[in-house]
Amino acid sequence: MQTMLGVIGGSGVYRIDGLEDAAWVAVETPWGPPSDQILTGRLDGLPVAFLPRHGRGHVHAPAEVPYRANIDALKRLGVTDVLSVSACGSFREDMAPGDFVVLDQYIDRTLGRAGSFFGTGCVAHVSLAHPTCARLSAAVAAAARTTGVTLHEGGTYLCMEGPQFSTLAESRLYQSWGCDVIGMTNLPEARLAREAELCYAAVAMVTDYDCWHPDHGAVDVAAVLRVMAGNAAHARSAIAALPGLLGPDRAPCTHGCDRALDHAVITAPDRRDPALVAKLDAVAGRVLKG
Ligand SMILES: CSC[C@H]1O[C@H](OP(=O)(O)O)[C@H](O)[C@@H]1O
Ligand SMILES: Nc1ncnc2[nH]cnc12
């Protein structure tokens, strides 16, 4: 199998540079249209697909990002490995604005987002104990290190509903829970990537101290975008370093992401809803076909 890298760019990251044969392509999915067209091309010889999470011009709010369509579209294009790039607030003094955090855990505080491809007529339960891919995360950390940024390997991301930022009481509560950073987008993606048997790694770029820090004002969009303007170049260099670290040949994932559905689907074959099974062609065709 060949490696194909998918990159989901968050706030402040609406394009990547240096793709050979670059073309924006429209992808249709059974879950509706993705956030935008997808920029395809090659980076260092490796096929790459880039999707701006909020769309170019930042048109989708975090709760309304079409997460299922986005993950389905990347899978449909042949993506094997997904790197998510996001802005985040920090709950830790030592995770300062400008730092990169390679995430490894999440806590969910979203409300009723579509967080699964499965449902009535085809029920599945994948493991989310380790929601990011350790193999891809190690490569991403190595790529980020080449840029010279301060890098933290491992971090827990509180995924809040938004779109308003947190109250001071919420910020202090999440800090007391041991969360490291906060954002509004990553967890639906991690859940869906696992269901779609895609490796998923996430770099959260610290833009602010949310609102808990006595020496810093409460976060606002201007502060996030100001820090991201400095960070985005580092993010692009890290992405550029990744193809060389991943290599073209995709061995089975040592973390098992590409086999996540092996023992997950519980609905008896003769009780499955053919319409839902048809929608799952790209995501779960490997285990549902035949
Ligand atoms: C622009 S500030 C809030 C916004 O930024 C983060 O976006 P992303 O995760 O896509 O980088 C945060 O999650 C909010 O959506
Ligand atoms: N403090 C914060 N809370 C939620 N999302 C963010 N994105 C960037 N900073 C954030």
From TrEMBL:
<feature type="domain" description="Nucleoside phosphorylase">
    <location>
        <begin position="5"/>
        <end position="233"/>
    </location>
</feature>
<keyword id="KW-0808">Transferase</keyword>
<feature type="binding site">
    <location>
        <position position="185"/>
    </location>
    <ligand>
        <name>phosphate</name>
    </ligand>
</feature>
<feature type="binding site">
    <location>
        <begin position="86"/>
        <end position="87"/>
    </location>
    <ligand>
        <name>phosphate</name>
    </ligand>
</feature>
<keyword id="KW-0328">Glycosyltransferase</keyword>
<dbReference type="GO" id="GO:0017061">
    <property type="term" value="F:S-methyl-5-thioadenosine phosphorylase activity"/>
</dbReference>
<dbReference type="InterPro" id="IPR000845">
    <property type="entry name" value="Nucleoside_phosphorylase_d"/>
</dbReference>
<feature type="binding site">
    <location>
        <begin position="53"/>
        <end position="54"/>
    </location>
    <ligand>
        <name>phosphate</name>
    </ligand>
</feature>
<feature type="binding site">
    <location>
        <position position="11"/>
    </location>
    <ligand>
        <name>phosphate</name>
    </ligand>
</feature>
<comment type="subunit">
    <text>Homohexamer. Dimer of a homotrimer.</text>
</comment>
<comment type="similarity">
    <text>Belongs to the PNP/MTAP phosphorylase family. MTAP subfamily.</text>
</comment>
<protein>
    <recommendedName>
        <fullName>S-methyl-5'-thioadenosine phosphorylase</fullName>
        <ecNumber>2.4.2.28</ecNumber>
    </recommendedName>
</protein>
<feature type="site" description="Important for substrate specificity">
    <location>
        <position position="166"/>
    </location>
</feature>
<feature type="site" description="Important for substrate specificity">
    <location>
        <position position="221"/>
    </location>
</feature>
<feature type="binding site">
    <location>
        <position position="184"/>
    </location>
    <ligand>
        <name>substrate</name>
    </ligand>
</feature>
<keyword id="KW-0660">Purine salvage</keyword>
<dbReference type="Pfam" id="PF01048">
    <property type="entry name" value="PNP_UDP_1"/>
</dbReference>
<comment type="function">
    <text>Catalyzes the reversible phosphorylation of S-methyl-5'-thioadenosine (MTA) to adenine and 5-methylthioribose-1-phosphate. Involved in the breakdown of MTA, a major by-product of polyamine biosynthesis. Responsible for the first step in the methionine salvage pathway after MTA has been generated from S-adenosylmethionine. Has broad substrate specificity with 6-aminopurine nucleosides as preferred substrates.</text>
</comment>
<dbReference type="InterPro" id="IPR010044">
    <property type="entry name" value="MTAP"/>
</dbReference>
<feature type="binding site">
    <location>
        <begin position="208"/>
        <end position="210"/>
    </location>
    <ligand>
        <name>substrate</name>
    </ligand>
</feature>
<dbReference type="InterPro" id="IPR035994">
    <property type="entry name" value="Nucleoside_phosphorylase_sf"/>
</dbReference>
<comment type="pathway">
    <text>Amino-acid biosynthesis; L-methionine biosynthesis via salvage pathway; S-methyl-5-thio-alpha-D-ribose 1-phosphate from S-methyl-5'-thioadenosine (phosphorylase route): step 1/1.</text>
</comment>
